[in-house]
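Newbie here. two chains, one complex. Structure please?
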Amino acid sequence: MKRLIWTLIFILTFNSIAWAGPIEFSGGVSDEFQYKELVFLSGEPVVFVGTVNVKEDEKNEEKKVTYSFSLTPEDLDIEGRLTRNVTLITTYTPVTDKGQTIANTTVTRYTENVSIGEDSFRLTNADIQFSQSAIIDNRPAIDFYSGNIQAVKRYEINGGEGTAQVKITGGDVGYKNFWGNTETQLLDYVYTVNRGSQGEADGDLSWEGTVSIKVSDSTTKSLQYSQNEANFTSFNGGYIQVINQGMISKYTYNLPRITDEGIDYLSRNQGTMSLQASKVPKIERLIVPKFRDTGGHWAQQDIEKLYSLGVFEGSSSFFIPDGYMSRVDFVKAVVKACDIGEDEEDSKTTRRSRRKKDEVEEVIFVDINSSHPDYKYVKKAFEKNIITRGKDYRFYPDEPLTKAEAMTILIRALGFEAKAPAPGYKTSYADDNKIPNWAKDAVYMATEAGIISGDNNNNINAHKQLKRSEASAILVRFLEFLEKDLKKDYSENIIYYY
Amino acid sequence: MEAEDRGETMWERITKKISIFLLVLSIVFANTLGVFANTVENIVEGFLVEMGENQVTVEEYDGTVRTFPFNSYYILRIDTLNVDSSDFKPGMEIYLKLQNNKVSFLEGFSTVSPGHIPEGSKVRIGTIKKIDRDQLIVKLDSGQEETYFTSPATILLRDGLKVPLSSLYEGDMVKFYFDEIDSKIISRMSVQGKSIEVKGLYKGKLALADVIKKELTLTDLKIFRNGGWENLTNSKTISYDESSPIHIGGQKISEDKLKYYKDNTVYLAVKDYFSSDRIESMVLESQNEAVYIDTIENINWFGNSMELEVSHRNLTFNEGTIVVKNGRLSDINSLDAGMDIFIVGDGTSGTMSANIIYVYNEGINNSNIGQNYIYEGRLDAVFRNTIMLKDFAYLNNNSWEAFNNSKELYYDEDTIIYDFDEKRILSSEEFYYGDYAIDEDSRYAQENSLEDRYAYLYTEGDRVIALMVQKNRDSLLKQRITNGVALEAPENHKWTGWRINIANAADWSSRKGQWMARKDSFYITLEDAIIIKNGRIIGSDQLNKDDRLYIVREDLKAKVIIVK
């Protein structure tokens, strides 16, 4: 029964995740108007442009994606056409006790017809073998993704004149959080084209070649400040939430050199071609903070960003930036910042609760009961393992938050605690011996992620009680990590350096 | 009886009192002894036999098996981390602290290698500020500066291909991998390929700044080429990254301020971003432009100024100054006296600051890691794995320096040997057994009209990486050393054969000891050239647009080209 409930929770949560990713596995990029990819079947890189229709249908543990491509060469001097229809079905198998999911993808339909110049290449359903499997690690603030692809495509050339076989091997990595998602595919194509001589002086037109594709699709949210140009207004300016989506692709090829006389077997055509496309940004204005005590404070921007996002709330005119951040306020801010809010299971629970009003809420901490205004955030953080419970069952909600506690909460939200070194190590900080044992992994990982760094004396001051301004700065850096650093790590840093 | 009774009672009372005293004494002693006993047994070490809900059984190292109950409050740890009792497994070594014979603290030991991380899992990304042999000073993305070290085992990858450490440049952006958490010795490095290079230095008028799309629209756009500005296009929209710095007069400004600089001249360093332009750095003109091609006489690092050798101008520089060296955006500290530069100044005749500094200097080696040389000489003898060069010359500071003695160099199976006359690559066997170095006085040589061949050699130290042999010797006096950038991909011209157009070129003047910038683009032919890229010989057709080239040429015929 417990397992069934967990499965339900997982399915309901997971189904709300829409993985934007590269289109199919051909390395193409698209914006709202045009799709573009490189085709190598002729032995030379040819840019094809056109449209692609993508349909997604999700039901319970299954996702069906259908792609329909209709493309022609970008170079109008080249005659050609490409049509491709693909249906991929992904089945999700939750491993609830590990908080992970295995996603297996199969092809149920794959047809492709390509003509380039005088040659035509035809691929039917029977000419493809495809296997894709991925693991999704569902962490509180982020879902991390990594998979592998193996496929073979076999084309018939000019109605039986020869065959073109394309072996595809590679994988993809990705993540998704409230602030964006990125998926990057790294694929190696091996082309083996067998064609008999065509008489005349052409000789044998068979060739082999390789193409490496790196393609990445990213969606990120960022904040942009907009000044109010009018003088007599009720506010000076405010933040805009900007959602950007873009795709980048890099093809590195090693092909035969094809000359007017045929294939030159003494040299190769090697090179790199890149594509990129980005969609028009989507914008959304955010509420305007009107604190009276943050103007000129070093953390003013950070505080205002968090207030605009609704991470901090309240109607007071005073934020009290130099007051101490309480444990409960910080946990609430993290839950809201990562959008670890109510999910469908919670809604069901709430409905059920309404039906059974007398039902008593489970006690999580003895010092924060269910009538506490922030109880639901603490409960969510506890359920997601962002915070844990001691033997005394106390949360100490109003106690000042220490740096060590803040780091532990953030690193647990990211799910990075297991990536720390094997225990028994020292961090690089001068006051390493003052870091509590329970916080050492979090301090190490937060440093690796660039969320914190030492002071001028290389002390981390783990026991320092954080002021509300300091906690705001840490939270904004944490959000930057979610929105920018992860995108860079999963996209440019793979494609540029791999 | 009463008396007796009383007497007995008295005796009994005395006895009882003594007994009570002894009892109290014994209890006190016993307790004291107990305390001492507890102190002795305060710490217990051994192997875990069984972990129960309320007690733990331990086999001490001497074989004694004992069971201790838990205190009302106790701490459980494995390798310093707090854990549950279910995490303990029989057989593991444990350490107990006891209070009143009850366990108050229990720690298990399991980790074999404290601090272990998977190989290469500690990663840093940054820009190389300084290279000094095995020492790299790196500015990390986080802003920190670190010093890392290479070892002979350090692997360097560029565009996925393994390349020698000598191919590193100051200004390269590198991903460093370390095997240990506190190690400074680099296990592996991946370097950005062409994407690191500046595609162009642009100048234009700012027409529009869209801070949401992160795009600038510029009119009257010009590109730096051949020591001046060439028209590029009337209008162009170029994207920028929010991390791209914007400066004016040495002050950093935010992108929000750009709207106040419409029609202002702006200078841009642009890189290729997946086949489109992207602004990496921009400087707004503050006053008036002045352009110089000159040599740095000296640099005053305290005053942030430099004196130019020919024009004798003093210019200041600041953190906004765009410095392009070896095709890369570089730190201002990478400048040095003696460098030949193109400067875009900003100011009046009295005070002038540098907005752009483009460095012409290029050498065979990218840093002091490199020990690459180019030799030319007569093949006096070819032995197995050894060549004796006679009457040889080598390129010393971009000039041929001749010697009339012999030089011993080494070749191996990996050496690429190219017979220029036969236009083919030779195996080391063919080279060894061939008539490439011969006793010209011998009957065999005279009968067959054989003479020693001449060769160009590209070496790493005394090891020959690539060698080109030819029958006729070139006149080194007629040769010129040039560096520049390929304006386009090479073309196979019907009259000249393969040729390539070179821009932003500079010729080395031995007399002046400096690079002299050329004011035009020019074609050089590649038919007679040995072309070396990443230590390998490549064909003319494998050169690409924007390749930076170090060229040994005779008139307009390239003899040796090194792709930088």
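Moderator note: Chain A touches chain B through 43 residues (CB under 8 Å). The longest helix of chain A spans residues 468-490. Thread marked as resolved.
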